[in-house]
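Hey team,

Filing this mostly as a record. A colleague (T.K.) asked me to run one chain through the structure pipeline before their review meeting, and I want the input and output archived in the tracker in case anyone asks later how it was produced. No errors, nothing strange. Just documentation.

Input sequence:
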Amino acid sequence: MGSPNRFNTFRDLVATNALAPATTNLFQIMIPAPPIFGNGGNGAVSGGRIKRVYETINYYASSVTTPSRALTTSEINNYGMMRRFATGQTNSEITISFLVTKDQMHRDFFEAWLHSAASDSDNSVAFYDDYVVDLQIVKWEHGANFKLKQNRDNSKKGMHPMQATGVWKLFGAFPTNISTQTFDNEQTGLLQMDIQFYFERYRFDQVSPKTLKTKGGRAETFTFSEVRTRVEGSGNPDVQRFSIG
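Output structure:
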C-alpha cells in the first residue's frame, strides 16, 4: 500500500493552479455610498466627492478581515448524555484597515456616514435603509485559463491575467466605529485607520472555478480587444472576474 501523503501527488495537485494554496494579498473591496448621501439635508454629500472616494478607496485598503460564521446552539438532557442542537447562526463584525491620505478624504467620508446615520448635533437617527449598503470583498489570484497578448502581436505568447476566485457579499452593512489615530515625533511611518462594520448576513461563493488554469489544458491566446468582446460582452454574470488592465 502506498503512502497516503505522497509528495509527488501533492505537487501534481498544486501544479493544477486551481488547487494551489491561495495567497493573502490580491484582494478588492467595493463599498458603495449609502443612499442617505443623495437625500439632501444633513446627510447630503456631493456626487463628485462620492465618485472620487469610490474610485480610490480600494487602493488604500491595506487589510481586511472576512466575517466568521458560527452556529448558535441549545442543549437538551432528558436523561443520559447531553445533546446539543442548532438554533441559528451568528456572524462576527469585520474590520477594514485603510492607509490615510494627506487630505484625509476617506476618513471624512466615514465621518459623514456615521454622522448621517446618528447625528450628535440634533440627536436624531436616520431610517435604516438609508444608511446601509451591500459591501463586497473579492479575492483575486493569478492564473486564468487563457492568455493575453498585445493587439499587434501575432505570436501565441502571452500572460495569464488575474482572476477573481471568491466573493464575500455582506448585506445591510454600515460602519460602526472609526479608530483613533496616533501622531508622534518618532520615526516616520504611514498613518492608518481601522473601520469596523456591522452587517445583517453574508454569502460566500466561488467565482468561475473552472476558468482557473489547469495543468495539461490548452490555453487560448487572446488580444485585449478579443477579451473585452468575448468576456465582457458575453452576457456572463461573472463579467468582473478577470483583470485585463
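Quick notes for T.K.: DSSP finds five helices and twelve strands in the chain. Residues 230-245 have pLDDT under 50 and may be disordered.
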